[in-house]
Amino acid sequence: MPVGPEQRLNPEERANLVAYIDGELTDNESRVIATKLTQSATARQEVDSLKKTWELLEYLPRPRASYEFPDRTLTSIRALEARGSTWDLAARTWAARGAKLALISAIAAASLAAGFALTRWAWPDPNARLTRDLSLAERLEEYQDVESFEFLEELVKSKLFDSPSP
Fold it and tell me: Poorest-confidence range of 15-29, 69-83, 89-103, 136-150?
């Protein structure tokens, strides 16, 4: 789009005029505005108007701050810092509580796992003895008919139940 004598600055360029006058723009931004200013009388009028406005502002009286202004400012800053440190303290407190809760949970889980392992492998299984002595349990009625061990010893001595040797 060609730049003509009636070409005005766009809103973005107009917003950057103060920075252009102060030399605070990047090279590319400064080059774009300088090109437009060299080719457009309307753009030059806008810049001249802005410069005159800044010069006239220098003639206006400057308001003086009250003597209490620094004290009030520092008091409000300290209040904001105190509020900020309150948040920091609360965050640290909650973090410490969370860490304690995590530690207690880990200890409880480890205790639960150790208790399970102990009862699973170290505690004697009452059913294991029954399975080991199953033959005794199957013939319990026959063994109850025997009155004493002496009778069994006499049976062994009689050799009635000896099996033939292979």
Answer: 136-150
Q: Distance between the two ends of the chain, CA-based, in angstroms?
A: 120
Cβ proximity of 8 and 42 under 8 Å: yes
List the chain domain ranges: 11-57, 126-158
Q: Which two tokens stand for residue 124?
A: 């004697």
Indicate if the alpha-carbon torsion angle 113, 119, 120, 123 is positive or negative.
Answer: positive
With a cut of 60, say whether residue 165 has pLDDT above it.
no
State the Cα–Cα distance between residues 7 and 1, nearest whole angstrom: 10
Contact call for residues 130 and 137 (beta carbons, < 8 A):
yes
Q: Are 3 and 39 in contact (CB under 8 A)?
A: yes
